[in-house]
Amino acid sequence: MADADTTEAKNYATSVPMQNVPFFLKGSNNLDWGMKNRLAQIFNPTSGRTVMLAFDHGYFLGPTSGLERIDLNIVPLIEYADTLMLTRGILRTTIPPTYTRGIVLRASGGPSILKELSDEEIAVSIDEAVRLNVAAMAVQVFIGGEHETRSAVGKEMVRDAQYMRLATRMCAELGATYVKTYYVDEDFDTVTASCPVPIVIAGGKKLPEPEALQLAYNAVQQGAAGVDMGRNIFQSKAPAAMIQAVRAVVHENLSPTQAYDLYLALKESDKQSVEN
Known about the structure:
This protein has 12 helices and 9 strands. It is α/β, with parallel strands linked by helices and 276 residues long. It has a domain at 33-206 and 225-231: Aldolase class I (TIM Barrel).
């Protein structure tokens, strides 16, 4: 039985209205508390942005360059990531359960690089995602692809702002909480403006470090809520330095030149640490 508290409550602060603070993330204010809490594990509430470290490539590519050993190549980087984008197999076998930031779980899959990639199925159930305590589930969409309606990146359409407006808006209208897509050089701000949920850009193919930092800068300055980078981090000559430089661009608005200088300084510092 609970102890009885006979002290009369007095401090009701009747002149102070209860705060009703809007949620910081675009398009998410009307979601339930649990969804907002999960999104706050992915997006930094202070900057409203995220640096996602993507290494789910093995679900169709196998052990590609830089991902031969997740335990050696990726685990040392996770402390710098706001969230991890990965498969359930890697999460279970390789990621320390002491990692407490967001987990985005690859939920679609099936064909390998040897087959038609749009022929995907849902590969992970909601129950499985709940057991793994993930913050979000990711499915690949192939707008314009052969199996477009089943998948719910087209080969036939030009990858321009018009196509990206179509694809991202479709994803949002079908219920996506946020959308990962590619950056385009012209009119990318119209893509982010016309999508009612946050857009995170994919890093895409490996670029020289200055170009990858420029890509991240251009995207966030034109409305992207962050980056989901894989190859441009784990295939960099100095992955730990690179992810920290990307963080500086995304969360601190460092210019690409400043971020590249930071990358070089961190790379040199890491080199001296290894030599010593």
